[in-house]
Amino acid sequence: MTEFLVAILLGIVEGVTEFLPVSSTGHLILASELMGYDAAQWAVFNIAIQPGAILAIVVLYWRTFLAVFKGLLRWEASSVAFVRNLLIAFVPAVVLGLAFGDQIDALLENAMVVAWALIVGGVAILVVERFAKTENVLGISGVSTMQSVKIGLVQCIAMIPGVSRSGATIMGAMALGIDRRTAADFSFFLALPTLTGATVLQLYKHRDAITSDSLGLIAVGFVVAFVVALAVVKAFLAVVTKHGFAPFAWYRIIAGIAAVVWLSAR
Nearest CA to 90 among 180, 156, 17, 182? Predict the structure, then answer.
């Protein structure tokens, strides 16, 4: 299989899984293993194409971004609260990411960690879905400062590949009493600074290993991830509205068990 085709396939995986609570990084690592490629070899690529999926959020929610921007110019309370909450939730990831960057990079090379994290994360989703008592919140601006801090801390658990950044933030928000739609929106928007920051850091740390050929592959993965994510986000919200997060939890558990069996038998 050519590297160009691998880049396309990994871009599809990223676009499909980035905003689902199933762990995009975990799926990219397992996909690399399944195709016979060293996960470490594609680790930087897998992170570098994430902003492609993030760009899909910018396109889909451009009216929201425009409204917030205009509100900031007028210093409207709701727009200020929107930006404040996301920045507060972003800070823990910055601190821990810089402090434990090398340890996190090592985990990105361990497919078995991904497999077990998928299983544990699936069980956690079922527990939160069953016992969380949520109430409607007036959008991201209605989330409290303390809730934003806690969501940011929960997001850091997703530094373990296979946990799922979106899953951690959405379930964390619901455990704090925030309704499904607001929790999902918070996760979507929090992804912008989080994944952009992670990408910039990884590209800087591994700048010596990046060649013109790898930049070409990253560009391909980026575009594919963007196009696929555009279609997936709306479908995801429709499924969650009707069925909740349980289908994703059971998928995680089944996929995780299958991965453990496959990795153990190799």
Answer: 156
Give the C-alpha separation, 97 to 60, whole Å.
Answer: 28
Give the sign of the dihedral formed by CA 96, CA 97, CA 99, CA 103.
Answer: positive
The type of residue at 3 is E
Smallest Cα–Cα separation from 168: which of 44, 19, 1? 19
- State the pLDDT at residue 8: 92
Torsion angles phi and psi, residue 85, rounded to 5: -60, -40
Please tell me the distance from the alpha carbon of residue 171 to that of residue 126, in angstroms, as a whole number.
10
Two structure tokens written together for 220: 């391909």
Q: How would you class 95 by CB atoms within 10 Å of its CB: exposed for 0-12, middle for 13-18, buried for 19 or more?
A: exposed
Average pLDDT of the segment spanning 199-211:
77
Note the pLDDT tens digit of each residue in 153-183. 999 998 888 899 999 999 999 999 999 889 9
The CA distance from 262 to 266, in Å, is 6
Q: What is the DSSP string of 145-192?
A: HHHHHHHHHHHGGGGSTTS-HHHHHHHHHHHTTB-HHHHHHHHHHHHH
Q: How many CB atoms lie under 10 A from the CB of residue 141?
A: 19
**Distance separating alpha carbons of residues 178 and 154, to the nearest angstrom:** 14
Give the tokens for residue 211: 């060649």
**pLDDT reported for residue 251:** 96
pLDDT reading at 87 higher than 90 = yes
